[in-house]
Amino acid sequence: MTTTNQTAVKDPVCGMDIDPAKAAGFSERQGQTYYFCGLKCKEKFDHNPEQYLGKTGESAKTGKGCCS
Question: pTM score, two decimals?
């Protein structure tokens, strides 16, 4: 049995706090893993990751699938 103690992370596109274990998707870039609340955020990131790197999002959001 594997357990993770990873805390919530921010979706780099929308800034939503999400649990990595429940993320809709993830992408890896330069050894870093980025997690997404919904597939639309993942698609936006994958299309132009430089636009979102170093950005934490406009405001933290809560709930499910704010961008899906």
Answer: 0.73
